[in-house]
Amino acid sequence: MPLYAFLAALGSVLGCVLLFFIAEKGGEALFHRHAGDRAHAIRHWVVQNGFWGMLIAALLPPPTPFKVFVVAAGVFEVRLVSFTSAITLARLVRYFGIGFLAIRYGHDALPFLKQHKWSVALVVLAVAVTSYALSRLILRHRPHPTAPN
After folding, report:
1. Which of 26, 34, 48, 105 satisfies CB 3.0 to 4.6 Å to 109 for a cystine?
2. First vs last Cα of the chain: how many Å apart?
3. Least confident among 10-19, 27-36, 126-135
4. Is the distance from CB of 42 to CB of 102 less than 8 angstroms?
5. CB 16 within 8 A of CB 55
């Protein structure tokens, strides 16, 4: 498990760094196209929060639009060391956590899920709603500084 978790984290970090460099070289149009009306809020979040902002964005489960944060980090020139450190930590936590759960529960997971399907469904729903609420809170509309008040 440690090898698989490490390689999954490494692949994810390398992919994010590649996207970071692409965005740094000219991804502002791409960023604005995918971020839409949330572009200013995402820019504000990435620039203001640096390491912690990227760490939180990387740890939030789907449907959080994580790649938009990666592109924003490149476009708005977040320090590469800070960016890479946050992504690495988040991915190691995520993949080693999943690996731990797989080892801990293994074959017992499916019978448990079948036996507690409604409880599991409610927990999954709660996580999805919480993730959505957190992403909306992070990306809440902030007026553009050049916009009239």
Report:
1. 105
2. 54
3. 27-36
4. no
5. no
Q: Any idea which residue has 């009239």 for tokens?
A: 148
Tell whether the model's pLDDT for residue 56 goes beyond 60. Answer: yes
CA angle 63, 29, 40 (to 5 degrees): 60
pTM of the model: 0.70
Left if phi > 0, otherwise alpha if psi is -120 to 50, otherwise beta: which for 12?
alpha
Cβ contact 98:5 at 8 Å:
yes
pLDDT, residue 148, reads 45
Is it the case that residue 122 has pLDDT exceeding 50?
Answer: yes
More confident residue, 99 or 109: 99
Output 30 or 126, whichever has higher pLDDT. Answer: 126
Alpha helices in the chain (DSSP H): 2-26, 28-35, 39-59, 66-75, 80-105, 109-115, 117-138
Name residues whose C-beta falls within 8 Å of residue 143's C-beta, 6 or more positions apart in sequence. Answer: 40, 149
> How many beta carbons lie within 10 A of that of residue 41, not counting itself?
18
